[in-house]
Amino acid sequence: MIKLTSTGKDFSQLKWDKVNSSVKEIAKKIDNRTGEGADFLGWTNYASKLDPKLIKDIETTAKEIRSNFDSLVVIGIGGSYLGAKAVIDAINGLYPNDNFEIFFLGQTMSTNYTKQVLNKLRNKNFAINVISKSGTTLEPSLAFRLCKNLLLEKHDKEYLKKAIYATTDSSKGLLRKEADTNGYKTFVIPDDVGGRFSVITPVGLLPIACADISIKDFIKGVIEGEKEYSIADLEKNPAYKYGALRYLLYSQKHYASEMYITYEPQYKSIIEWLKQLFDESEGKDNKALLCSSAVFSTDLHSLGQFIQEGSPCLFETILWVEESNEKIEIPFVKGDEDQLNFVAKKTLNYVNTQAYKATLDAHTSSHTPANVISIKKLDAKALGNLLYFFFRACAFSAYLLNVNPFNQPGVEVYKKKMFTLLGRK
Ligand code: PA5
Questions:
Q1: pLDDT score recorded for residue 127
Q2: CB–CB of 345/330 below 8 Å?
Q3: Which of 157, 180, 213 is the last residue of a domain?
Q4: Residue percentage of the chain with pLDDT more than 90
Q5: What is the distance between the alpha carbons of residues 140 and 289, in angstroms, rounded to a whole number?
Q6: Is it true that the peptide bond before 297 is cis, omega within 30 degrees of 0?
Q7: What is the mean pLDDT of residues 75-100?
Q8: Is-catalytic flag, 63?
Q9: With bands split at pLDDT 50, 70 and 90, how would you rate the model's confidence at 1?
Q10: Mutate to test the pocket of ligand 1, among 132, 133, 175, 282 (most ligand atoms within 8 A of CB)
Q11: Cβ neighbours for 199, distance < 8 A, ≥ 6 positions apart
Q12: Quick check: 84 and 248 in contact, CB under 8 A?
């Protein structure tokens, strides 16, 4: 169960009238699919309606990929890769103990990064999961072409059928056309679920299953979230309460930015996913908080000074997971040359926890308020629940802000200019 707490003097000064009187109306907009962008509210009950045959198909496909190949390259950008990466990093860690490797490509057009991944793949027996709802996004399309070329260095065209798995629209787009023409196995991204809400569909589920993580447990957590975070009562629903808090800090206390914080490097991808979820959903009509991210205590040694004493423009939202999967005990050393025996026999997690408590106190007693979203342990089920918590919080907060949470018209501007420069007809 997710616990939400808030610390800082601002919280007692917030005026709740407007929010309190909008809760039921906004909850209805989400549940009855009547709000702006309602065509993209399919995620609200997607998990509980998920056909068990689809889950089985994804599990069987993942098993097949893991036994026929030694690695998978996931090709996608934005909502078509961030969620899967968030879950895989969070559960398996940054240096997983698994012979089967997962690479990500198509989220950048960096030559250095792309070359490094292609060089790794050259010596691997790899499969491809190419993911694009539109089927036309430049970054993944280019990466897909490069990966197919790499496969064709060693294999014939027929082989592509075995090695390529495409996740895309049911009927539209170039990727759908190519997949159908060439007989690639495909999974469908539902029409009514947008990219940044798609981790609970085959977009996220296939890569997650390929990383040997239980998608059944993940989906269980989402289904529990469907119940817990749809209650139209701020005191009983921490997702709506958090959505309201961030809106009030923006609209009444005029904070410009929300900084997502984790004390666990393997959860950094979760807060990267969060940045996309909130910034792309809310940043329109010249409004919204800018979401940023930091990993503490690492970034306390770069951003800590600014947060403590610099411009008071941000508040923090800390993702705090009480239990660590691993345990390291600090050894007692005779002679205490490095003078660290004051923490001898304590766990590293205990020390990290004191750093969290001390930092929360230091920042909130200065000018940086903080929300803490805490969870006991982050396994696949808790993670499904947590991501759904943020879906609901995001939709609620965006409707309070009076923006359509489900479009991203601004993203098209750079694309049009880029295609003009590249000479696409
Ligand atoms: O959330 C979104 O809709 C976007 O981030 C898209 O997922 C991203 O732009 C990739 O689009 P596509 O899946 O069409 O390639």
A1: 98
A2: yes
A3: 213
A4: 98
A5: 29
A6: yes
A7: 97
A8: no
A9: confident
A10: 133
A11: 79, 82, 83, 84, 86, 87, 273, 387
A12: no
226 with 208, same domain? Answer: no
- Other Cβ atoms within 10 Å of 163 Cβ, number: 20
Same domain, 58 and 24: no
Are residues 169 and 277 both part of a single domain?
Answer: no
Please give the pLDDT value at position 425. 79
Is pLDDT at 320 greater than 90 in this prediction?
A: yes
pLDDT at 277: 98
- 322 pLDDT band, cuts 50/70/90, is very high
Considering the chain, what is the average pLDDT of its residues?
A: 97
Nearest CA to ligand 1 atom 12: 132
Residue 231 and residue 161 share a domain:
no
Last residue of a domain, one of 213, 244, 266: 213
* Ligand 1 atom at shortest distance from the alpha carbon of 411: 9
Residue 173, ligand 1, Cβ within 6 A: no
Q: Is residue 88 part of a domain?
A: yes
Which range of residues forms the domain containing residue 404? 2-32+221-409
Residue 425 placed within a domain: no
- Per-residue pLDDT for 196 more than 90? yes
Of the residues 53, 227, 254, 301, only one is catalytic, namely 301
418 within domain boundaries: no
Together in a domain, 171 and 257: no
The pick from 75, 77, 277 for probing ligand 1's pocket by mutation, whose C-beta has the most ligand atoms within 8 angstroms, reads 77
Q: What is the mean pLDDT of residues 73-90?
A: 98
Q: Are both 97 and 162 inside the same structural domain? A: yes
Total tally of structural domains belonging to the chain: 2
Asked, for residue 121, whether it belongs to a domain, the answer is yes
How high is the pLDDT of residue 213? 98
Per-residue pLDDT band at 76 (split at 50, 70, 90): very high
What is the Cα–Cα distance from 79 to 40, expressed in whole angstroms? 14
Compute the distance from residue 75 Cα to the ligand 1 centre, in Å.
12
Q: How far is the CA of 243 from the centre of ligand 1 (A)?
A: 23
Task: Mark whether 280 is an active-site residue.
Answer: yes
The arithmetic mean of pLDDT across residues 308-324, rounded, is: 96
- CATH number of residue 320's parent domain: 3.40.50.10490
Mean pLDDT (whole number) for 324-328 = 91
Tell whether ligand 1 has an atom less than 6 A from the beta carbon of residue 195: yes
Respond yes or no: is residue 254 known to be catalytic. Answer: no
Alpha carbon of 190 to ligand 1 centroid (Å): 13
For residue 137, report the distance from its CA to the centre of ligand 1, in Å: 8
Q: Which of 139, 228, 258, 280 is catalytic?
A: 280
Looking at the fold, whether 159 and 17 belong to one and the same domain comes out as no
Question: Does residue 37 have its Cβ closer than 6 Å to ligand 1?
Answer: no
Candidate of 82, 104, 134 to mutate for ligand 1, largest count of ligand atoms within 8 Å of Cβ: 134
**Statement: residue 325 has pLDDT above 90:** no
Quick one: what percent of the chain has pLDDT higher than 70? 100
